[in-house]
Amino acid sequence: MGKKIVVLTGSPRKNGNSSALAESFIKAAERNGCSVTRFDAAELSIKECRGCRGCYGKGLACAFGDDFNKIAPALETADGLVLAAPVYWYSFPACLKAVIDKFYALFVGGRSFAGKKCALLACCADKPLSTFDGLLVTWRGTIRLMRGEIVGEVLIPGVAKAGDIQGTDGLRQAEALAEKFA
Fold this sequence. Notes:
This protein has 5 helices and 5 strands.
C-alpha cells in the first residue's frame, strides 16, 4: 500500500499558481501509488488558536470544534505533509496560518510529525527569493519543532497572475518532489 500524504493549500484562488503546484504534486504522487488527502484552508472554518491547552481533552484535537478537527486525524495517520501556498505579505495566507497555528493542538496532545516526510510548495509575485524568508522561518521552525523531515522546498518567484506558473519549471519541480514520498 502506498504512502498517505496530506496536502494543505492556502490559496483562495482555485486556479491560482500555488494550486497548480499542488495539483502537479498530487497527480505525480498518485501516479507513484500514494494516497493523497487535500484540504483547502480557504474553504474551511478554522478559528485562531486560543492557547487554552484543552487540546484532546474532549477527544478532539481542538476543544473549540472547528474544521481543524477534520484535518488532525488525517495528519496523525499520514506518512507525509505538503503545504502549498502563495506568499501574501511575506508569510503564509491567514487561512493556512490558522491551520499551522492549530498544530499546537497536536504538539500539546503529544503528537508529532516524527517519521513524516514534509515539503513546501510556494510561489510569489515578487522576484527576489528573499520574499520567501518569513514563510521559510515559520515553515522550517514548525517542522523542526514537530520533528518532521523536510525533504524539499519548491520556491517559485515572479508569478503574479493566475497561469504564470506555466512559464516556469515549478510544475516539473513539484512533480519531481513527489518522487521523494513514494
